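Sequence only, no structure available. Ideas?
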Amino acid sequence: MSFPLFPLNTVLFPGCVLDLQIFEARYLDMISACMKRGEGFGVVGILEGEEVGEAASRFAALGCEAVIRDFQQRPNGLLGIRVEGARRFHVDKVVVQPDQLALAEVSWLDEPDDAPLLAEHADLAALLAALAEHPLVSGLGMGGAVSGQQALANQLAYLLPFSIEQKLQALMLDEPLQRLEHIQGLLDDLQGELTA
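Reply:
I predicted one. Tokens follow.
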């Protein structure tokens, strides 16, 4: 039970970048310990509860390891960190410490081999290229051209405004092709709602 969890109102995907502002003592201690050990922590989507204060009352049993890539003191004096999604995991058991930090026992999920983009992915690749034009996305160094199905699926699932539940469904799918089909289905549903 030594893998710290950081419940957030977002779902992190492998290869995707997330900027966090750390101000709660439990997370400052967690980040310090992770940096000293050269280890990551787990980002899990909140299903019930809040990001701050008491531990979220319910969070996803599926998450993504966050590896610290950079840190700096923000102009407001708080610690800012940039993390990158690494391995997916399943939460097997959780213990909430007195300071409300959740520590877990996790099982790491295997990542399938990547596959090249197919002609049918041209529209999704164009969508990701368009997202790269947004200042927030370009600020994270994401979007643009990708080399395979894995990066395309992960970045689209992460960047598009799907619900936490929809993003978790995408994260749960092992094969990048399945993930891309799931994303295409969500986009088709969204387009149907807009034209109805």
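The CA atoms of residues 48 and 97 lie 19 Å apart.
Hope that gets you unstuck.
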